[in-house]
Write a structure and sequence with these properties.
The complex is a heterodimer of chains A (339) and B (597). Chain A has helices at residues 15-37, 40-62, 67-71, 75-86, 93-108, 121-132, 134-138, 149-156, 171-181, 188-192, 195-198, 206-222, 229-248, 256-260, 265-272, 283-303, 310-327, and strands spanning 140-141, 167-168. In chain A, 63% of the residues lie in helices and 1% in strands. The termini of chain A are far apart. Chain B is built from 17 helices and 17 strands. In chain B, the strands form 4 sheets. Chain B has a 6-stranded mixed β-sheet with strand order 1-14-13-17-15-16, with helices on one face. A 4-stranded antiparallel β-sheet of chain B has the order 2-8-7-4, with no helix packed on it. In chain B, strands 11-10-9-12 form a 4-stranded parallel β-sheet, with helices on both faces. Chain B is elongated. The chains are: A mainly alpha (339), B alpha/beta (597).
Chain lengths: 339, 597
């Protein structure tokens, strides 16, 4: 027989299956994204995917790893999709390419490839680009943009000038800027009442996209690919901090619903803090990791210099993973009464 | 109704049990040859009692138990002994083991069988009978049963757990045994109960065997026993002794403890059956029920003689053409039989014919993505991926911190791993490396102790020599002083040597000789040589030598000696001793050279 030692029976599981299910879980979010912001995102997804696969292939070749085996595992595509979804849909093509290259080459392969990266590659790409190209990374198209997809594509490829008319800021960004500009004179409640920007509860259109991510996350949970610990703790951390400050001063601080369903919160909760490679592995560790990431994301959003804080929060927590794991090892069978 | 507990983890592989339960147990025909290994249980290897040419009867002892934890071996049928020689073992290594080759005479003639009434006998006698009858754990661990039938002196025996769970896929031998021989199983359990005197007897059977549950319940009722027959949820490895104990009693037995320390003991149903046969019929263990299944035309259970060569046994099931190997045991914890002439042994509960469709070749191994599936299914709640990293990195100390020796190698982690990492294989490797290193370290420690003993002895001898010389020098000095005194008395003007000055001839040689001895001894011999009293010098020298030996022993603490070869360890021991000596003596450099062993 081909095999050498037991067990001889194996479950039908593979890294590829895991990654394909993650991709499937992103589909509801992508569908909502297309509906809200138009199909230009599909172009960005393609650009990111092609870049990721080429970069992955080149790095595998350099590292003398089997190409077919690793290219087909789907992990590079997951990274690519997460990058495309977190970058503004009208980003110039080279921004997506730069981010993806950074994620695959530096954040992933220079650390040893699949399973070895201490930081979430997509978040590394986002952080690197928002630090390097803050203006481009903050230009989001207005919802219901009246520009044809072909023209949008020309913008992406630099064939048409980037017009201020077609790009604005995210609701999170708008709120932050408005609060800064009219400090004291205007309340959050008043601002959020503007439904053309803020929709029903968390940003017009954004509610649907983030709702799609939530749906995808629940799918992953149902499939047993992620545990409830990290997402729940992330949502708890974000809600607790935003809720406390909102109760303290609703004129100055937005309500938890707004924070949960805008920006990268939902994507972060279900697809980023649940990344097994760069996250905690123990159940207690996942709770700590998720909660701290949620709290940090809120603090950076509200008090930091960036409109959204999920990427930085996750990267900061990635640093803490080894020590959290070390101190949260569960008691084993038969040794639970002992300290 | 008993409320059940849960164990964490576990998996649900396809059970594949229905194939082999449709036919009743059949008695396998006599094979043309039998190869009975002498070592078939945990513990001492039985001594052969027969030699080539001997005629043996069925049930005649051919190997006597060696030591208390050991179990006798018997001729499975009547016939003549062809050889007592090395023969390939039923072990994945493909190594040989001392085996008795018997050519059956076809009569299958029993030797003398003496049933005993265990109720009327001392417990020791019953245990002795089980040892003589070769009764061992037939669940797969083959631990001598009599060795488990003494209750702890300090902890009262609360529960006796009887394991009929049979959680591994494909295996049905216990199921069929319970269905067909329920009464004898229950009677066997009665023997264990009588010896251990537990408060309760719990028989656990996975709920995918309702026929077996019903049969045992009926037998319990018929015999008027108060055993509880409990259907437990089907989830691998529910039949692991520790898991079944957990499910039925809520107790968790850690690796470091025996179950009797927690007031519970566990036996397999087939063991109970053989115990009954041994006690009530005087029949030793010469056969067992073996499931023959997998890629065969006629899967079923056979009562086969111990020692039946695999090739003759598998013919009974008519293996299909694409069969490419045979597993012994289940697919989760079993192993591939190394050769077709390897024999069935007491541990053989199942033979599975394999094929590329039944057990497809494993997909290539991928890197671990820390998904934690392995930790989720580990019934001992370990962190297999952590142990895997450290095993891979040969950081065996860390694997032990993560409790690698609590791993029961059930295979759940490998079963679910999406990266198809053979985790259990890594853990087996790490465990055997740790054992090998421990052995090596023990050997090195012994060498070190021997060396220190030798050094201490040499120093003692040197000190004694120095003391002797000092004594001689003192005598000489005294003599000279007396002579000088006499001279002074007679021709005045001759200056006498001042008292306390060492004698000119004796002192230098003493010094040289005592270079290795303690500073105290040196001081004594050097300064007080002339007027001293010999008794004091001797005492001081001995005291100093003893002190040094003691200090050296105390200073020897095990350091980072676990990755060393024996040669390296010796070298380090030598250097350590040297360093120790210099530090203690604060001797001049010249002395250092001389302290070399």
């Amino acid at each position: 027989m081909e095999f050498t030692t037991s067990p001889y029976l194996l479950k039908n599981a593979s890294v590829q299956r895991v990654m394909l299910q993650v991709l499937a879980a992103l589909l509801p979010g992508i569908a909502a994204y297309v509906w809200v912001f138009g199909s230009i995102i599909l172009l960005q997804l393609v650009i990111a995917t092609v870049t990721a696969l080429l970069a992955e292939a080149a790095m595998l070749k350099l590292r003398e790893k089997p190409l077919g085996l690793f290219l087909s595992d789907g992990s590079a595509i997951v990274t690519a999709w997460l990058i495309a979804l977190t970058f503004p849909p009208l980003s110039p093509w080279w921004l997506i390419v730069t981010g993806t290259l950074f994620a695959i080459v530096i954040a992933k392969h220079l650390y040893g490839g699949l399973g070895q990266n201490p930081f979430n590659p997509a978040m590394v790409a986002f952080a690197a680009c928002i630090v390097s190209f803050p203006a481009l990374m903050s230009q989001w198209p207005a919802v219901g943009l009246q520009v044809s997809v072909a023209d949008q594509a020309r913008v992406v490829f630099g064939l048409l000038p980037r017009l201020d008319a077609i790009s604005g800021a995210t609701p999170l960004d708008t709120l932050k800027t408005a609060l800064k500009l009219d400090e004291g004179s205007i309340s959050v409640t008043q601002l959020l009442a503007d439904q053309t920007v803020y929709g029903f509860f968390a940003g017009r259109g954004w509610e649907w996209v983030t709702g799609g991510y939530l749906l995808g996350g629940l799918f992953l949970l149902w499939r047993g690919l992620i545990s409830w610990h990290a997402p729940t703790a992330f949502i708890a951390g974000l809600s607790l901090f935003s809720g406390a400050l909102w109760l303290y001063n609703p004129a100055q601080f937005a309500n938890p619903m707004f924070h949960l369903f805008s920006g990268g919160a939902m994507l972060g909760a279900w697809f980023i803090v649940t990344d097994p490679v760069s996250g905690c592995t123990t159940m207690k560790g996942k709770l700590i990791f998720g909660f701290a990431a949620g709290a940090l994301a809120y603090l950076i959003r509200v008090f930091g210099g960036y409109p959204d804080g999920v990427a930085f929060a996750v990267l900061l927590m990635n640093i803490c993973v080894p020590i959290i794991d070390h101190y949260t090892q569960p008691a084993i069978f038969g040794m639970k009464d002992r300290s | 109704m008993l409320s059940l507990f849960k164990f964490k983890g576990g998996v649900k592989p396809q059970t594949n049990k229905t194939q082999s339960v449709s036919e009743p147990i059949a008695v396998a025909p006599l094979p043309s040859r039998l190869f009975v290994p002498l070592h078939q249980s945990i513990g001492g290897t039985p001594q052969p009692l027969v030699q080539a040419g001997d005629h043996v009867l069925k049930g005649q002892m051919i190997g006597a138990a060696d030591g208390w934890i050991s179990s006798a071996v018997h001729a499975p049928t009547s016939g003549s002994v062809r050889a007592v020689a090395e023969h390939i073992a039923a072990h994945p290594s493909g190594l040989t083991t001392l085996s008795v080759e018997i050519e059956p005479d076809g009569k299958d003639e029993w030797g003398e069988r003496t049933p005993i009434d265990h109720g009327a006998m001392a417990p020791e006698t019953v245990r002795e009978r089980l040892r003589e009858a070769g009764v061992v754990g037939l669940g797969g661990a083959v631990f001598p049963t009599h060795g488990k039938l003494t209750a702890s002196k300090t902890v009262p025996m609360e529960e006796l757990v009887i394991n009929g769970a049979e959680c591994e896929p494909f295996i049905t031998c216990d199921d069929l045994l319970m269905r067909e021989r329920a009464e004898e199983v229950i009677r066997g359990v009665g023997i264990f109960r009588d010896l251990l005197q537990p408060k309760r007897v719990l028989i656990g059977i996975e709920d995918n065997k309702p026929e077996a549950v019903a049969a045992l319940q009926a037998a319990v009722a018929k015999l008027g026993e108060h055993f509880e027959v409990v259907a437990v949820p089907t989830r691998y490895p529910a039949g692991g002794a520790k898991q079944l104990i957990r499910v039925l009693t809520g107790k968790e037995v850690p690796a470091a403890k025996r179950s009797t320390d927690l007031g519970v003991q566990c036996f397999n149903v087939a063991t109970a059956w053989t115990a009954w046969r041994a006690v009530a019929h005087g029949e030793p263990v010469v056969s067992r029920i073996v499931t023959l299944t997998g890629n065969v035309e006629k899967p079923r259970n056979w009562e086969a003689l111990i020692g039946t060569p695999l090739a003759e046994f598998v013919k009974l099931g008519a293996p299909k053409a694409d069969t490419n190997g045979y597993l012994m045991g289940g697919p989760m914890m079993g192993f591939e039989m190394p050769a077709m002439d390897a024999p069935l042994v007491k541990a053989t509960n199942c033979i599975i014919a394999g094929s590329p469709t039944l057990f497809p070749p494993k997909a290539p191994e991928m890197p671990c993505i820390r998904c934690g599936e392995c930790a989720k299914v580990c019934p001992h709640e370990l962190q297999p991926f952590e142990m895997y990293w450290f095993s891979r990195a040969h950081n065996f100390g860390k694997t032990q911190e993560y409790h690698i020796f609590d791993c029961i190698e059930c295979g759940c982690c490998s079963f679910v791993c999406p990266s198809r990492i053979p985790l259990v294989q890594y853990f087996r490797f790490a465990k055997s490396e740790i054992w090998a290193r421990e052995k090596e370290k023990n050997a090195a420690d012994q060498a070190k102790a021997r060396f220190e003993w030798k050094t201490a002895r040499e120093e003692r001898e040197k000190a004694e020599k120095a003391e002797k010389l000092a004594k001689a020098a003192a005598a000489q000095a005294a003599k000279k002083a007396a002579e000088a005194a006499a001279a002074a008395v007679a021709p005045a003007g001759n200056e006498p040597p001042p008292a306390g000055e060492p004698a000119p001839t004796g002192a230098p040689s003493t010094n040289a000789a005592s270079a290795n001895a303690s500073p105290v001894a040196v001081a004594v011999t050097a300064n007080d040589a002339a007027p001293l009293d010999a008794e004091a010098a001797k005492k001081a020298a001995i005291a100093a030598a003893l002190e040094r030996a003691r200090a050296q022993r105390a200073a020897v603490a095990p350091k980072n000696t676990d990755h060393l070869t024996a040669a390296q360890a010796r070298e380090i021991a030598a250097v350590d001793a040297l360093r120790q000596q210099t530090g203690l003596e604060a001797a001049p450099p010249a002395d250092n050279g001389e302290t070399k062993p």
